[in-house]
TrEMBL record:
Residues 1-59 form the HTH lysR-type domain. Residues 288-310 are annotated as: Disordered. GO terms for cellular component: protein-DNA complex. Keywords: DNA-binding, Transcription, Transcription regulation. It holds the Pfam family HTH_1. This is DNA-binding transcriptional regulator, LysR family. Belongs to the LysR transcriptional regulatory family. The keyword Transcription applies. It comes from Micromonospora mirobrigensis. One of its GO terms (molecular function) is DNA binding. Residues 293-310 have a biased composition (Low complexity). InterPro entries: LysR_HTH_N, WH-like_DNA-bd_sf, WH_DNA-bd_sf.
Length: 310
């Protein structure tokens, strides 16, 4: 016997003084209400209603049991409400602040279709790690080396004018003999100011003979993009970002740089939802077509350029 359903019928009939009206209020047929109440009476071993007249009246036993039945029904309703709130609990996720707002909105919509209530919090790499560590968010899309990444985004250089070759060689950025020739900088945005991206590029620049000031970290993505738009400087970025700023994009010949992202989460369920259910949607948000880009996407064929890359 479903005690909660029987008590719900008992409370409804007692409140309306009629099996017909009470059953209608409970959303069940009158015959079902009668069977449930009869089963409850059999379970307790005593009558709940006096059926000797046309009116349905509570017996003394029924009057004593009614408060408990109401509490049970109220508790069951409260459990349903609690379950709904728990199911729709917000999953706060720290995401890269470079993700375009529209793509973040698409991610939230896709999550809701899967009955996942996301709250995204854009932040830079160090802040995302801190938010995960202090449990201010339930999960984070954190920066990791390419080898351990779930999502990968190829990086290249972006400039205001087209590149003459399919790849850029750092040697072509060396200053000429003329001291008046400006040294073109490679600007690293904060999202890529992580050891596994910054350090290989810095070492490669030194090996190619670039001045230390030619590989530098910009205060923000906007500052870096503004420099690339208003000067010969180059922005280290993804193809998607270059398109957003209407810049020309070209991959580096060496070093081959790739953003890597993975999920950090305190609860296994949250980890699974982000890394499996929403995998493709997060890839779209990050600008990664899939988790394993092909070599042709990362390193298009080409030969060294001997002139100015723009």
């Amino acid at each position: 016997m479903d005690v909660v359903a029987a008590c719900r019928a008992f409370v409804a009939v007692s409140g309306h003084g009629s099996f017909t009206s009470g059953a209608a209020a409970a959303g069940i047929p009158q015959s079902v209400a009668s069977r449930r109440i009869a089963a409850l009476e059999e379970h307790f071993g005593a009558r709940l209603f006096d059926r000797s007249s046309r009116a349905v009246r509570l017996t003394s036993f029924g009057q004593d049991m009614l408060p408990s039945a109401r509490r049970l029904v109220d508790l069951a309703d409260a459990m349903v409400d609690d379950a709904e709130r728990a199911r729709l609990r917000p999953l706060r996720v720290a995401v890269p602040e470079i993700c375009p707002p529209r793509r973040l909105a698409d991610l939230v919509v896709a999550a809701r279709r899967q009955r996942i209530h996301l709250e995204v919090r854009p932040a830079g790499p160090p802040e995302r790690e801190r938010l995960c560590r202090t449990l201010e968010v339930g999960a984070g899309i954190v920066a990791v080396p390419e080898a351990t990444a779930a999502w990968r985004v190829p990086l290249g250089l972006a400039a205001r004018t087209p590149f003459p070759a399919p790849t850029v060689f750092l040697e072509t950025l060396r200053s000429g003999r003329s001291r008046t020739q400006a040294r073109r900088r490679i600007l690293i945005q904060p999202e890529d100011d992580v050891a596994h991206l910054r350090d290989p590029l810095t070492r490669a620049g030194q090996s190619a003979g670039l001045a230390p000031s030619q590989v530098t970290v910009a205060p923000s993505l906007v500052d870096a993009a503004a420099a690339a738009l208003g000067s010969p400087d180059l922005l280290l970025c993804s193809r998607q970002q270059a398109e957003d700023f209407a810049l020309h994009w070209c991959p580096l010949a060496d070093p081959r740089l790739m953003r890597g992202y993975d999920v950090a989460a305190g609860v296994r369920e949250d980890l699974d939802q982000l890394s499996t259910v929403l995998y493709a949607d997060i890839a779209h948000c990050l600008g990664a077509s899939d988790g394993h880009p092909s070599p042709t996407e990362d390193s298009p064929p080409g030969s060294p350029s001997t002139g100015d890359p723009t």
